[in-house]
Design goal:
This protein has 99 residues and is mainly α. It contains three helices and two strands. The chain has helices at 3-21, 36-61, 69-91, and strands spanning 24-25, 29-30. A hairpin with a 3-residue loop joins strand 1 and strand 2.
Length: 99
């Protein structure tokens, strides 16, 4: 694999888990408890940003290949798989109660 592909995969995994790591909206504005809807919105926005980065990297190498809806559905499903560890840590992993 080329270094840029590995770098893009690492960026995608980090971006997919980012909405579940912090209680801040877009890692900027602090809010009390981030609702799942905000996390889902951040996940979609980060998917679009990573997709734009991938398209930019592809354009630097040559002509960009035309993609259809199946490609975007598949890559979004892969992005959701990348987000699974952060989702599990946030919503299913029980923290021990202190006291």
């Amino acid at each position: 694999m080329e270094v840029s592909v590995i770098t893009l995969l690492i960026v995608a995994v980090l971006a997919a888990n980012l909405p579940f790591v912090s209680n801040r909206l877009a890692c900027i504005k602090p809010i009390g408890r981030k609702h799942f809807g905000w996390q889902l919105l951040e996940l979609v926005v980060l998917f679009l940003l990573v997709g734009g980065l991938a398209r930019l990297m592809e354009a630097r190498l040559g002509p960009v290949h035309e993609q259809h809806w199946q490609f975007y559905v598949t890559t979004f499903a892969l992005f959701l798989v990348f987000a699974f560890p952060g989702f599990v840590m946030r919503h299913f992993w029980k923290r021990p109660h202190s006291g």
